[in-house]
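Researcher: Next sequence.
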Amino acid sequence: MAKTKKRRKASAFVLDSSVALAWCFHDEANAYADAVAARFPEVIGTVPVIWHLEIANALLMGERRKRSTESNTAQWLGQLSGLPIVTDEDGLAHTWTGVISLARAQNLTAYDASYLELAMRRGLPLASLDNRLKAAAKALGIAEFKP
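Model: Next structure:
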């Protein structure tokens, strides 16, 4: 009788841009971020719509501040686009309700609150390097992603 391999369902988590940017900029390298990266492709990163703009803006600012080059940006975007990262399109419907309420209650930007709202709505842990965002997540009972 042949043995069959059981496929494990990939676990999902909310991926904050701070973690992804630590993969891109050497001066932001971080052991936690590296551990998160090492879990791909067995895990699925879930991101709010704003994530793509945050990444694009940070990479562009890195070029302008001479932290990276246009070639680095192209390389990093290629690597990021190859990862199992899915965009939560449904989050837009919660922007003017859940996100803004969370931002007020937790004294965060609407951008950061979008990660909290997504984690709460989907029941997912959060991977972040942002201390204020992590503190707000903890206060709300959102689990930290453990790579």
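Model: The helical segments are 17-24, 31-38, 50-64, 70-81, 95-106, 110-122, 131-139. The mean pLDDT is 90.
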